Amino acid sequence: MDIAIASGMTVVDRRATEGVTGPIRRVAAAVASPLRAFLHAESAGGIVLVVAAVSALVWANSPAADGYARFWQQEVSLGGGGARVTHDLRHWVNDGLMVLFFFVIGLEIKRELVVGELRDRRAATLPALAALGGAVIPALMYVAVAGGGEAGRGWGIPMATDIAFAVGVLALLGRRASSGAKLFLLSVAIVDDILAIGVIAIFYTERLNLWWLAGAVAGLLVAAGMRGLGVSRPWTYVPVGVLVWFATLESGVHATLAGVALGLLTPARPVAGRGVLDDLERSLHPVSAFLVVPLFALANAGIDLRGGALGDAFGRTVTWAIIAGLVLGKIVGIGGVTYLVRRLDWGALPAGMHHREVLGAAALGGIGFTVSLFITDLAFTDAGLIGQAKVGILTASVIAALTGAVLLFTAPAGTGAATLSPRPNGDRTGDGDRTGDGDRTGDGDRPRNGGRPGDQGRPGDQGRPGDQGRPGDRDWPRNRDRPRNRDRPGN
């Protein structure tokens, strides 16, 4: 797997410095995008997540199944006196450790909004609208199949995309999936996370204690004030973060939202010459990907399928509503909205992404494992409905992964990763370093730079109104390859 990841995800880092010496080599190394590091850790973390989920299923259906239930139902208390909090182990994982996962998501969202792909309006329009379609259509499909009542409360389950699983599939495909398809899927998944967080905060909060909520807001204001004063050492924020988490937990709002809020408060640009957000993400992302999320899977994916439970689940509407939402809803929502946005010329695909890769990326969006399981426990209290939902999530995620992999593998080859290798005249090329599916070279869907060789070989897009001179497709690799952080404070 390490070889697949290295060949599929780090080709830019290797080729970026090929034939480049001296200061240019140092610049190329400095430009290596934090986004690629994020992809790298997520792809490897996806493998660990699969192992954890399979382990939970085996454990829950083995002769030691009773031990699985007893282990996660053990009660653990933290604090003392009036501040004593007691929950079972599964609850501590879901409401405690998962705060770190959502904090890392908050960091990634902040970076992409301020200095990343989503800061450019045109570049962000297509993935943002595609993600919206990929959230609304699955929810509507779920309601259409499951109906109302208690079962209808699970409409938020098929809205989310599991980045770790999806990027893991892309890593296995290697160069069969273009760099543009990887960037498109990650951007959609990030917007998906924003929507899912909003759904959790607004629709899955049953009780609300305003005093505790006010305490959480006060803690966030303290953190913002510390940031305004130029405090850049992360450990000084830990006590404030713990207080914000505890107040959020007691307020009735799901405690993981405290992690998102604190992540969004983190400055995306250097403070006093220090890249706080990059340092935090580099330190915490491995902990989240290789410890927290696998523990969450181990605690929540253990479904007892013995005694006809699997057959019973496939006879229930909740199971099929989730499968319909995640498998069909994502393809129709993401793929349909992407087609519409391109037809209306509101946005453009990332450079190097073939239009037939859209359906493959949309299908991978149906891998809704982690956040879907998370919303399941918020939506349902009935053990039967929870079991049916988990069967639906696992089944849909497998179908979505296989469908997306087949669609991407059979799509015309993308142009691969962008490269910083210089042309003989000193210009840099974007993606025109290899031939794709035989009828095009590079990402040449329109003339550029005076019609240099290799940019005009692909049929299909020629003559389409609005394509000539449009900056859309060119913005993505330039945004992706330029340095994330500027040496100025703010945000």
Structure description:
The chain is mainly alpha-helical and 491 residues long. The protein has one domain: Up-down Bundle (Na+/H+ antiporter like fold), CATH 1.20.1530. The chain has helices at 2-9, 11-16, 22-31, 34-60, 65-72, 89-114, 121-146, 163-173, 179-203, 210-228, 238-251, 256-265, 276-300, 309-313, 317-343, 357-364, 369-379, 383-410, 472-481, and strands at 75-78, 85-88. The chain has a two-stranded antiparallel ribbon with strand order 1-2. Strand 1 and strand 2 form a beta hairpin. Helix 7 crosses helix 9 (179-203). It is globular. Residues 1-20, 27-32 and 415-489 have low confidence and may be disordered. Belongs to the NhaA Na(+)/H(+) (TC 2.A.33) antiporter family.
Largest sheet: 2 strands, antiparallel
Number of strand segments: 2
What is the count of structural domains?
Answer: 1
Helical region count? Answer: 19
Q: CA-to-CA gap between the ends?
A: 37 Å
Provide the structure class. Answer: mainly alpha
CATH architecture field:
Up-down Bundle
Which topology does CATH recognise? Na+/H+ antiporter like fold
Q: What strand order characterises the main sheet? A: 1-2
**What general outline do the C-alpha atoms trace?**
globular
Transmembrane segments: 44-62, 92-109, 129-149, 155-174, 183-204, 210-230, 242-264, 317-341, 361-380, 392-414
Catalytic activity: Na(+)(in) + 2 H(+)(out) = Na(+)(out) + 2 H(+)(in)
Membrane topology: Multi-pass membrane protein
Main location: membrane
